[in-house]
Amino acid sequence: MRIFLTAILFALSATAMADTLVYNITIKDHVFSPSVITIPVNQRVKFVIENQDVTPEEFEGLDFDVEKIIPGKTKSTVFVGPFAAGTYNFMGEFNADTAKGQIIVE
Asked: Is the confidence at residue 7, as pLDDT, over 80?
């Protein structure tokens, strides 16, 4: 019975992961690209953030709770949402003057 339940949970989580929208974001020269990302309303999405700089950056939501340090020359993943329609800001805390972005939810 335990094996059967584990198999069902694995199948359900694999299906849920297959439905997750994935967005790729690059950090280069302390700037996010793209800096504006449009995602659907009420859906949790995955951001794969590649830091091409040699220094670390911290991806931080200003209007939502996410903080993730991304070491230089590495990739990290964060999940954001679900959000209501609107605009949500994020930044790179270590380079706040240049590393800025928005998530537009529609």
From this structure: no
Q: What is the mean pLDDT of residues 40-68?
A: 97
pLDDT band at 78 (very low <50, low <70, confident <90, very high): very high
CA distances from 22 to 16, 47, 105 (A): 13, 6, 15
**What is the C-alpha separation between 25 and 19, in angstroms, rounded?**
19
**CATH no. for residue 71?**
2.60.40.420
> Is 9 part of any domain?
no
β-pair partners for 79: 46
In a domain, 86, yes or no: yes
Name residue 93's amino acid.
E
